[in-house]
Amino acid sequence: MKKRSLGRTGFEIAPIVFGGNVFGWTIDEKASFDVLDAFVDHGFDAIDTADVYSAWAPGNKGGESETIIGNWLKARPGMRDKVKIFTKVGSDMGVPGHKGLSESWILQAVDASLARLGIERIDLYFSHWPDLHTPYAETLGAYDKLLKAGKIRAIGASNLDATQLDEALHVARAQNLPAYQVLQPEYNLYDRNSFDGALRDLCIREGLGVVTYYSLASGFLSGKYRSKDDLGQSTRGEGVGKYLDVRGMRILAALDAVAARHGASDAEVALAWLIAREGVTTPIASATKRSHVESFAKAAALALEERDIVELDQASAP
């Protein structure tokens, strides 16, 4: 499988990153091990998670996903050398002071993540959300300490807009601090507004790697949700209703047409569109069973033609 350079991190990764938000939520540890094994067996090599995953599930408090990944790495000797681990800091962990991007919290949170993951160094550490109460210089200064201590290898940011990212990059240059090398935005065929335009242009201009989340719009772009009656098919279905509008149906129709021409699934085409999109390094996608991972491999190998991309671009134009 052809690898892609992830911005200026020095990493070369396969064209789909595994989304670990499902671990400890929609699948248990045994099933998580199974899909991770399949993921690596198919030639993929990067896993994305966060300290807060999956605190929203009943009985959870956060850290469940990192713990499962850590247990998997421990149970698979030699696996740590085969995969890149991405995790995040900044979300509200439900304990006073355990949120945001202050130096004191970052230095504490990274050790907790390292312990749950059972590793000595995180490959890519993301600021999960903007923190309007903490100066960029303080956050980047904390990352500088972690980079020098060998606890992380590279840094990224998630959910920043163009103005915020540009300012963070400016502060890094002006104060000789480490700069964000990767952006993780919400981006897919339906949700295009927040990344297309100034933010995408900035990432291309600055040479940032881009790994997209909600790459299948919570499963809507798989094509299995066509009406409100379909929303009960999974625990994620309730978040899909917003896509059931005229534009959403137009996108599904385009996906159906392109998929039929290639003998592919709608999800494979939606991921292939992201992989082919200028400015995107790789999409993040989640799997709950081996067949999903097999579909990832098909998506990574799917070469869309110009007519396919034009059709999808036109159907999804905001």
TrEMBL record:
Its Gene Ontology cellular component terms are: cytosol
Q: Which residues form the NADP-dependent oxidoreductase domain?
A: 15-315
The GO molecular function terms of this record are: oxidoreductase activity
* The keyword Ribosomal protein is assigned to this record: no
Alphabetically list the UniProt keywords.
Answer: Oxidoreductase
Oxidoreductase keyword on record: yes
Q: What is this protein called?
A: Aldo/keto reductase
- Give the species this sequence originates from: Gluconacetobacter liquefaciens (Acetobacter liquefaciens)
